[in-house]
Design goal:
By secondary structure, this protein is α/β, with parallel strands linked by helices. The chain is 38% helix and 15% strand. Helix 5 links the parallel strand 4 and strand 5. The longest helix has 21 residues. The radius of gyration is 19 Å and the shape is globular.
Length: 342
């Protein structure tokens, strides 16, 4: 049954609600957890998911979130709910040495938007820093977020890139993201570090994501570019759950897995669905290409099960959220970019 998510508090609870599998993972996982780059779009709900799953499994475990935490309110909220926080710029000299030795590390620190014009900073965050983290935490298990952008565009009728599809990143963001993977691969090869790499595209919740971008364009009567006419999405809570459960699959060489939903979605049809919700006709420009950035996550679904939240539910929640002009993160995904420039 689809229910409305009416407040930020309800949303954060829904995004961080543990499953039985999450609880089992935290019960079986030895040691504390460190989340690097926890102040972004996914980090807070992931940290809370880990905290709640450990508590419900009745295991003693520190969950430590590391970020610059320019948003002091966010830091206070996390601490009130039992997540320890460390305010740190990970690129500062000696910063990683200040962190505690923790056996389970999630790497979320990344930079995408603003790459054009400041590519050096993107490479520093996405490739240089992972090399440092791989060495600093060479005795830990590491789950590292990556992106489906490391794959080339795929024929829409061929089901999306699998983990065995040769990588061919377009643009400096995607190239630096592959560099991130290679640095963790190097660390795993040199020190035997167990690693899991999650190639994610695209996580969605009512304040952010591809579906939100489409919904807002329909609601605000802005044209929707159809040249990237097909997408994959996954509910952010399901992506968070997959991340936690990947700790049991960390390996050397790294375990690599695509993380997204099972459907290839038509941007046009999604816009038309939102149009029905808003009683508006979407405005389109250009035409669909026969290729798009698409991933096949059958491996993930076989191991972890299919996502718990359906696309129809996400559309319902997002239409209600956008239609009622609730709080937004105001961070467009630029999913329609076909040249890899962000």
């Amino acid at each position: 049954m689809i229910t409305t998510i009416a407040t930020v508090e309800e949303l954060e609870e829904r995004l961080s609600r543990p499953t039985a599998a999450d609880e089992r993972t935290m019960a079986d996982l030895d040691g504390d957890m460190l989340i690097l780059g926890a102040g972004g779009k996914m980090g807070p709900s992931l940290a809370l998911l880990a905290r709640r799953a450990a508590d419900q499994a009745k295991v003693q475990k520190r969950i430590i979130a590391v970020s610059r935490f320019s948003d002091h309110i966010l830091r206070q909220q996390l601490e009130r709910q039992g997540v320890e926080t460390i305010s740190l710029d990970l690129l500062d000299s000696g910063a990683l040495a200040k962190l505690p030795d923790v056996p389970n590390v999630i790497f979320m620190a990344a930079r995408k938007f603003g790459t054009t014009g400041s590519a050096h900073l993107t490479w520093a965050m996405n490739t240089f820093l992972p090399g440092l983290v791989a060495e600093r935490f060479r005795n830990s298990r590491i789950v590292a977020f990556s992106t489906g952008n490391v794959y080339p565009l795929q024929k829409v009728n061929e089901g999306g890139a699998t983990e065995s599809t040769p990588v061919n990143p377009q643009g400096e963001y995607a190239q630096s993201a592959l560099g991130r993977e290679r640095m963790f691969e190097y660390g795993s090869s040199r020190w035997g570090t167990p690693v899991a790499i999650l190639r994610l595209n695209y996580a969605v919740e009512p304040r952010y994501g591809v579906l939100v971008d489409i919904a807002r364009a329909v609601f605000e009567r802005r044209p929707i570019d159809l040249r990237m006419g097909f997408v994959n999405v996954i509910w952010q809570g399901d992506a968070n759950s997959t991340c936690l459960r990947c700790f049991t699959h960390c390996a050397s060489p790294p375990f690599v897995v695509n993380v997204t939903g099972p459907e290839i979605l038509s941007v046009r049809k999604i816009a038309e669905e939102f149009g029905k919700k808003f009683s508006l006709l979407p405005i389109f420009e250009y035409q669909e290409s026969d290729t798009a950035l698409l991933s096949n996550a059958a491996k993930s679904h076989q191991i972890f099960g299919c996502p718990s939240v359906q696309v129809s539910e996400m559309i319902e929640w997002i239409a209600d959220w956008v239609g009622n002009r609730r709080t937004m993160l105001n961070k467009p995904t630029h999913f329609s970019s076909r040249d890899g420039k962000f």
